[in-house]
Amino acid sequence: MHIGQLLTRAAQRHPSHTAWFKGDTEVPYSEVERRVTWLARALRGLGLADGARVGMLLPNSPEAIEVMFATMRAGLVIVPLNIRLHPDEHATILEDAGCSLLVYGADFTPLLPSLRQRLTRLKMCVVGPVSTGDPNYEELLETECRKEELATESPQEEPQPRPEHLAWLFYTSGTTGKPKGVMLTHRNLLTLVSVNLIDLNSPQPGDVLLHALALSFAGGFFMLHHVARAVTHVFLPRFDPVAFFQMVAKHKVTTVALVPTMINMLVRSPARTEYDLSSLHTIFYGGAPMHAERLTEALAAFGPIFLQSYGLGESPLTITVLGKDEHTGTRAQSAGRVTSLVSLRIQDEDWKPLEQGKEDEPNEGEIAVSSDLVMSGYWQREKATEDVLRDGWFRTGDIGHLDKDGYLYISDRKKDLIKSGGATVSPREVEEIIHQHPAVQEVAIIGVPDDTWGESVKALVVLRQGASTTEPELIAFCKDRLASFKKPRSVEFVQDLPKSANNKVLRRELRERYWQGRARKV
User: Fold this and answer.
1) 198: which DSSP letter?
2) Tens of pLDDT along 382-404?
3) Residue 102, CB-side half-sphere exposure with 13 Å CA sphere
4) pLDDT class for 371, splitting at 50, 70, 90?
5) Which residues neighbour 47 within 8 Å (Cβ) at sequence distance 6 or greater?
6) How many angstroms separate the CA atoms of 118 and 92, rounded?
């Protein structure tokens, strides 16, 4: 089995079911299957060998799903890029992955000169009605279609990726601030699909999935099992509450995956009561803290249709799940219970499992998991892989405990990463940028409570003697050098930073005064 077979079988079983719309025209699964077949052949025709990496810089769109499936079906590796990143960050990822090809949308044409200058051997393909000198997406498909119709060439033998072959190189921030490529195999993704169907939601062909989360991130993971069940996909290129409500009402959307920031915006929007949202039966959420009071408001606004899951890029989405009927009492603040194809334990720093402890005094430790869901390792980072994988167990870096009924409660993130609006920000990465400012002597970046974003980025700055700068100046300094979502939303100037005996900044101590009295939910 490989991930490309999910689409093939969905098209065989439900050929006339609508996959998505092109304008007002319904595109059936049978046509999507043909287009993905042609695209897979076209990619190989560009000279890409087994295991070659293909970068993707596209907004949420039908083409993004086609590129993902065609790449993996062709025995290649998809490298989806977050469209919100800075062009230099795109180049860094493409370079690290050793991508042979970049499929990009016409809207990203202005970014190409800097990419071409840095990556001189990178082939490119453009999606959209624009002339850039690169092969055009639709023209590649038309060429393969004509070959098939005219039978001018003998059919190419379809690649047959094996379960252990690399399928998706997912880039996630690390504690060093440098992106790491998480190696996800076909087996990993098929396990993800299986767990979703068993434990999260089992969609029916009549369901309609709205893509509000980026397909380059969690949205892509959530998309896979919906393709397997031949649901209809509709796309929200840019999140806006009114646009969201309009899409739900127009297409009778049944299912959506969101981060807490989006849910908070929907709950607070006065437009919510102006649209018929009765078709919604499942709102999946995760990826960032969801405060208890905000969850209560969401349940009151939309009803008991919420599903939560806990996971990481290294073990996508489905380590634990909190079902719709479990969002009550204190359990609503848990991350749910372990899913069917995952083993979970709480361990100490030496990888030794901890006993559960007493109900009122649970033993907290690091969360570790074992499953075919877990990545095969970090791309070209052997030491980083050895640090987190041992004897089939993956250490998540998160701290928590299990109650007597097996519900997981997460109390802290060991790696200090900040999750703001579902996006992950590395403190170290932001600190390195701020340290470039001539007025700055020291800086610590922490996540602080934010009712809209879950957490927001805060900079605590010690200035050089006699130097001066302002909060707006430092924020603008970061914005010019980082993706906008990574810049601090606030800056506080302090005399010094608390440090441990070995001179490490005590980030947890800095956070405590902001989080006192506030529950943190991952």
Assistant:
1) I
2) 999 999 999 999 999 988 899 99
3) 25
4) very high
5) none
6) 9
